[in-house]
Design goal:
15 strands; elongated; 311 residues; five-stranded mixed β-sheet
């Protein structure tokens, strides 16, 4: 049994310190997050390593990284801390009504078009909760960047460190401006996209693959290139409306353009893969009352009425 100050609770303090060091990437950053001295955090982790008889962290002058054993132990520690939080919530009446700050991250376009009003509804229902909403389109790691809950529109992938909760499936559309199609012709098959300017999501240095389902139901992967790419859907939509090329985007981003005629759907028999609108949060926050309530609130709003035509 690990004893620093004469109590079992100090084992949890050591585990918590170890987890914080892994997530912060170093002792100094972890100490700042915990409001402790660097030496105190270091002592907790060293005592834990001594108790276990293994090296959990690889230390260098530039960074601290978990060893293979440390990585496995870190995953188990997340569950231990989650169980501790569950016990605290069970005996704490103060947690019956959610209070405090929720740090939420979401994509820019989805946030401005759909998320803002829903967050306002949530805050009206739970007035003791303060929401810090950050909108950005880069991929963020909730563990290292301190967000309680992240919304993402992407292909859902499991992770042992994160809880991924799907809210809705979002359909995607291939489309271009009528003027572009008049100048360059209408593609008649997925392979034709290789010969068109395709405005892709991501970076120029990346290889962009669009996956479409053929009329026979088979997946077809097509490598595409174009004069422009961006990590923002509205920017790509606007570029397409200016005739710069073909885009593949969630329908809720391009729906107005399709209705107004500034964009035209192409290859309707080749269906792009749907994307998942997901809530993502670290496993050690899955028992937080605030996270649970906001997840349920988002599920109710977007599960029943996914962003799309008519929304």
């Amino acid at each position: 049994m690990l004893i620093l100050l004469g109590g079992v609770v100090d084992k949890f303090a050591a585990i918590h310190a170890f987890v914080q060091v892994v997530e912060a990437g170093g002792f100094a950053a972890a100490a700042r997050d915990m409001g402790m001295s660097r030496s105190a955090v270091n002592k907790l982790v060293i005592t834990l390593e001594t108790e276990l008889g293994v090296r959990l962290l690889q230390r260098s002058t530039r960074q601290v990284t978990p060893t293979a054993t440390g990585t496995a132990f870190y995953e188990r520690c997340l569950g231990i801390l989650a169980d501790l939080e569950e016990a605290e919530i069970a005996v704490s009446q103060a947690q019956a009504e959610p209070v405090g700050t929720l740090r939420v991250n979401a994509p820019m376009t989805f946030g401005t078009l759909h998320l803002g009003p829903v967050i306002a509804e949530f805050m009206a229902q739970y007035p003791e909760v303060q929401v810090q909403l950050t909108l950005e389109d880069r991929f963020i790691d909730p563990l290292t960047e301190g967000f309680d809950l992240t919304l993402r529109i992407a292909q859902s992938e499991p992770s042992p460190r994160l809880v991924v909760h799907e809210l809705a499936q979002l359909s995607c559309v291939l489309c271009a401006a009528p003027g572009y199609l008049e100048r360059h012709g209408h593609p008649t098959s997925a392979e034709d996209l290789r010969h068109h300017s395709c405005l892709a999501y991501g970076e120029l240095a990346s290889r962009h693959e669009w996956v479409l389902a053929s009329p026979q139901g088979e997946d077809i992967s097509v490598s595409v290139n174009g004069a422009m790419c961006s990590n923002n859907g509205e920017v790509l939509r606007d570029a397409a409306m200016q005739g710069l090329g073909i885009v593949l985007l969630p329908q809720f981003i391009v729906q107005q353009g399709l209705e107004q005629g500034s964009l035209q759907e192409i290859l309707p028999d080749y269906r792009p893969r749907a994307l998942s609108l997901c809530v993502i949060y670290p496993t050690n926050r899955h028992l937080s009352t605030k996270v649970q309530l906001l997840t349920a609130f988002l599920q109710q709003r977007f599960g029943e009425h996914p962003p799309g035509p008519g929304v």
